[in-house]
């Protein structure tokens, strides 16, 4: 696990793992097998239940949003696309979180996929993963026919949070800031500042591992160290490397 978290945090390639960690072939094998067999999901969900601080593990409300990131050369043309709104050629991450900003589900698509189209898939996943969810807040990009579709097929009330009329300056909007904070948490991991993965499923896995690392540091912080700050110096000074 430490080796997977190292790759995610530093952005190094598998082959550049330090010699004091297991062989990269072994680490990659576990990364792939755990993802395909659902072990990664079980680790993530168990930590999320503990990190909810005594609240019901099955949340009744959440947020949905999307984040477009540039795709590296390792991302094939069949799984990448142009996001005209963000002017990014790469992939798009569709996330649903609970009201604490903890990840419920994630879907990675080509950047050309509209938020509404990705929203259908990720909200359907969210309802399957957390049947208790009945209301989800979203921005204006999810308005329109999607609201009725989600209500009919997922039994979720999609509440659109819009900017107040006449607002010209930045302001924190109710509910939406929570998932925006989650997206900023993910960008602490250098592996996630771009999308380097050949398979979208591996991109989704690294997002889950980013949250696993975050929740682990919260639940078992190192004495004298602020949660979220890297344990050792090499995480601060590690070079930005591509796979």
TrEMBL record:
GO molecular function terms listed in the Swiss-Prot or TrEMBL record: DNA binding; transposase activity
UniProt keyword 4Fe-4S present: no
Insertion element IS402-like domain: residues covered: 1-44
One Pfam family this sequence matches: DUF4096
Keyword Cell membrane included in the entry's annotation: no
Key words of the record: Plasmid
Residue ranges crossing the lipid bilayer per the database entry: none
Protein's GO biological process: DNA transposition
All residue ranges annotated as the Transposase IS4-like domain in the record: 60-211
InterPro entries: IS402-like_dom, Transposase_11
Protein name, entry field: Probable transposase
